[in-house]
Amino acid sequence: MAWFIIILLWLGNSRAQFVDITSQTEPDLEERLFGLLLRLQTEKIYDTLLIYGRDCAFPSLSSRLQVPTVLVSSGSTNFEWNFSSLTLILSCDIQAEREENYRTLMKLHLARRLILLRGDFQPESVCDFYSKKDQYNIAMVKENFDQFGVVYSCRLFQDQKYEKINFSEDKPIFIEQFRNMHGAPIRSFPDVSPPGCMAYRDPKTGEEKYIGFVADLLNNFVTKVNATLSMQMELAKNEEDLSFVNITNWAAQDLLDIGMSEALSFRMTNFDSMSYPYLMSSFCFMIPLPDKMPNSEIYMAIVTPPVLIVLFIIFCIISVMLIYIQKKSWRALSVTSVLLNDICVRGFLAQPFPVPRHSSKKLKLVLMIICFCSVITTTMYLAYLQTFLWAPPVDPFMTSFADVEKSRYKMAITTYDVDAVNSLNVSKDKVVVLESNKFGHLRGTFNDKYIYPVTAVRWMTFEKQQDNFAYPLFYYSETLCVNYFDILGFPIRRYLPYRHLFEEHMLRQKEFGLTKLWLDRSFGDMLRLNYSTIKDFNPPLLNDYVEVHNLYWVFGLYFAGLALASICFIQELLTPLGRWRFRILKL
Description:
InterPro entries: Insect_Ionotropic_Sensory_Rcpt
Largest sheet: 7 strands, mixed
Oligomer: single chain
Number of helices: 20
Number of strands: 16
Distance between the termini: 191 Å
Strand order of the largest sheet: 2-1-3-4-5-6-7
Keywords: Cell membrane, Glycoprotein, Membrane, Receptor, Signal, Transmembrane, Transmembrane helix
Main location: membrane
Membrane topology: Multi-pass membrane protein
Number of domains: 4
CATH topology of the largest domain: Rossmann fold
Subcellular location: Cell membrane
C-alpha cells in the first residue's frame, strides 16, 4: 500500500511538471511567431492576414497584430472576398486551407503563405503539395520553432526544393522566384497573323522565329526571365483552321502558359484566362472610298435646272429690251424674234455679233449687259467643267448600316465574326461568310466589291500600304463598327504563377515606347517578310482620259442644236419662195 501511494505521488508530480513545461512552451512559440510576423510586417510583406484553422498559435496572435485579420476556422469561405495584393495566409497545418470559392482562389493564388507544420510532415513534401497547385510563395515553421528558430522556404529552381533560414539571419524568407527561371520552358502557340505575329526562318540557325508587336513582347519577356519558349505545335495536329480562338481555348484549358496571339475578348464572361489589356483598339469596317461621278454625267451636273431657268429669263428680258430699243415699238415683238434673237444668242454663247450703226446710249448699255452676261456664264461653266473633270464629285460616305443595305457592296466576314455581325442591323443577303484564307486574300488585294471588318491596329498597315498607290482605295469607318472598344490582351493560363511579372513587363514595354516602335515598323516588317506588297491595286488608267461615250450629252446637245439651226435655215429659204409663188398666182 505504501508503494502504491508513493507511485501515485510521483505520477502527480510528473504530470504537474509536464503541464508546466507545456504552458511555458506554448507562450514561447507564440512569442517567436509574433516576432516573425513583426519582421515580415516591417519588410512590407503583408498588410492583411488571412488565418485558416483554429487549434494553433496563429488565431491568438491576430489580436496583438494591428492589421486587418480574417479568421476562417472552417478552412473555406462561402463569399467572394476582395483581398489586397499584400495578403499573408497563415495555415495551422497543411490541410487547414480548404478554400472552395473559385473567385477567392484566383485572388489568393499569388499570396504568400506561412504554414505551421505539425506531426511528421517534411518541408520537401509540403513544397511538392503546393507546387501542384501552382503556389510557390510558401514558408513553413515547425512546432519547435521556438527552440531552433528555423524557417523553411520553398525554392523552385534549386536542387533542394527548400531552404533553411535561421530567424536570426538577414535572409529574405519570400523571394520572387520567377525573375530567373533558369531556362524553364514557357508553353506557347503562335497565331501567325500579321502584323502581330509573323514567322520567318533564321538564316544562321535555320530555326523558325516570330516577329511583330505581339511576338516581340513575349520574346522579350522570355529573355528577361531567362526562360525558353516552347511552341506546342502538336496541339494543331487535329485542327484544320487555326486562329486566336483555338489558342484562347487552349490557354483556358491549361494547355498553354501564354499564347502568342490576341485573346478572344468579346466572348469572355470573365478575364481569368486573359492578361491585362495590352492595347485598346476598335473593330470597325474598312470601306471602299465613294464612287466618283462618271464623266458622262459631269456635263449635265454643271448645268442645273434652276440656273438654266434664271439664264433663260434674263435672255428673254434682254432680247425684249434690245428689240424694243431698235424698233421703238412693241409690234415687232414675237415669240420667234425674242427666242431667236441673233445678237442675244451669239452674245450669251460668247460669240462675236454685229453692233448696229449709230447705236443709242440705251442700245449700247444693253449690248454691254449682253457682253457681261456672256463673260459670267462662260467663265462659270468652264470653271465648273474643268474642276469636275480634274476632281469629280463623289457619292456620300456611308454612316450607318442602312447605307450598306442600299449600297452595291457586300460584307465579307470570317466564321469567327458571324456572331458579332448577327447583332448588327444587316440582312443576310448582304453578308458573305468566307474561309480565313480567302478572306485574307480578298482584303489583302483591296477587292472593292466588299467591305471588311478590321481592327484599328491592322488598319495602320493598310493605310501605309495605300501610301504607295496612285490614290487610296479604302477608308476606315469609325461609325460602322462591330465593336467600338476592342481589348487586345494575351491568352494566359488561369493559375500562371508569374502572371504578375508578365503583366508588369507588358506595361513597362508600352511605357518605354517599344510598343509604338513595333507598331510603326509593322508594315516594313511585313514587306521584308513578304507578308505584304507595294503593288498598286488601283484599276489601270481609271479616269485618266475622256472616252467618246462620256460625251453622250455633249453630242446630243450639239446635234439637237444643229437640227434646230437646220430647221431655221430651211424655214428662211422657204419663206422667199412662198412669197414669189404668191405673187405669180396673183398676177
